[in-house]
Amino acid sequence: MKKERLLMKGNEAIAEAAIRAGCTAYFGYPITPQNEIIAYMAEHLLEKGRVFIQAESEIAAINMIYGASAAGARAMTSSSSPGISLKQEGLSYAAGADIPLVLANMVRGGPGLGSIAPSQSDYFQATRGGGHGDYRCFVLAPKSVQECADLTYLAFDLADQYRMPAIILGDGMIGQMMEAVVLPPERKLEDLPKRNWTVGRMADRESRHITSLNLVPEELEAKTRARFGRYQIIQQQEPRFECIGPADADLTIVAYGTSARVAAGARKLAEQSGFPVRVFRPITLWPFPSAVLKEIGETGKPILAVEMSLGQLVEDVKLTVLGKSPVHLLGHSGGVIPTEEEVYKEIRRILAGNR
């Protein structure tokens, strides 16, 4: 049976996939360029008799999602860069209390209020925790409207499985573009993973208390070490990536999201001119897919990081290849998007210097 293809914006696909994944509670606050998510949730989540609240602030929204998830809801919030910054304290609390939740960040130009144009300058914030303390979040980076749906659907399962926050890291371009999408199946709420750790007093058990507070340093360290043991398992089992192009390529572009779309076009331009180029796209920015990129680095051939920031993704590339391959950066900031021709020109410049 042929699956139905719908024309949707990336933001709409995120919202619909969340509903189909079993999201039972959404809390948010409007900010461009992710407003379609909150608008879609307001209309369609309420239709299903689930919880939608437009909070009085981003800070309120992240604390509402903490409480809803602790009580058993599959909960979600979304925002864009300045709003995500306001959520960082609550996100740290959720990570410290082992609360699963899903957060979508459609990144805009910064720092500060910046612009409403697409950007990737929240990479450090997302992949390094963002708030205070030792913790990590899943970070999934879609490059298409289809992946907005697929990765959001996946994010809920990963968050539940490992009891931690999962971030969908898109940008204004990904959120606003329209493409055909095949939506994932709708789950029945009774079939969702059972949570045996939620708060509340039930007839057959004692009440449970969920908190990130522990005033005994040794106990807090033990709890954090146990969480990092879980992170090690994730780093082994959950990295996701896409690699397009010949294994013997003269140069590898590393890019994600919108930049990866640009890189794919630049790769075709290079091939037409006789330059074999490969594109390595991390889909999980954390856990970063280091193993395959490390093998690419072992060849000693040049690597070009293309990103809509002035040097964030490139740091993980350098940490992975450890100087065994030269690493170059083509970066833009403030909402400027690189062009295929610009990336192709940089490819030719790098390869000309290697010959």
Layout of secondary structure:
Elements: E1 6-9, H1 10-20, E2 25-28, H2 35-47, E3 51-54, H3 58-70, E4 75-79, H4 81-86, H5 88-96, E5 101-107, H6 123-127, E6 138-140, H7 145-162, E7 165-171, H8 172-176, E8 178-181, H9 217-237, E9 241-244, E10 251-254, H10 257-272, E11 277-282, E12 284-286, H11 290-298, E13 303-307, H12 313-321, E14 327-331, H13 340-353
Parallel strand pairs: 2-3, 2-4, 4-5, 5-7, 6-7, 10-11, 10-13, 13-14
Antiparallel strand pairs: 1-8, 6-12, 9-11
Q: Describe it for me?
A:
This protein has 355 residues and is of the alpha/beta class. It folds into two domains: 232 residues, Thiamin diphosphate (ThDP)-binding fold, Pyr/PP domains (Rossmann fold, 3-Layer(aba) Sandwich); 112 residues, 3-Layer(aba) Sandwich (Rossmann fold), CATH 3.40.50. Helix content is 42%, strand content 18%. It has 13 helices and 14 strands. The strands form three sheets. A seven-stranded mixed β-sheet has the order 3-2-4-5-7-6-12, sandwiched between helices. Helix 1 packs parallel to helix 7, helix 3 runs parallel beside helix 5 and helix 10 packs across helix 13. The longest helix has 21 residues. The protein starts with 5 loop residues before the first strand and ends with a helix.
Q: What is the number of strand segments?
A: 14
Instruction: Give the full name of the CATH homologous superfamily of the largest domain.
Output: Thiamin diphosphate (ThDP)-binding fold, Pyr/PP domains
Strand order of the largest sheet: 3-2-4-5-7-6-12
Structural shape: globular
Low-confidence stretches: none
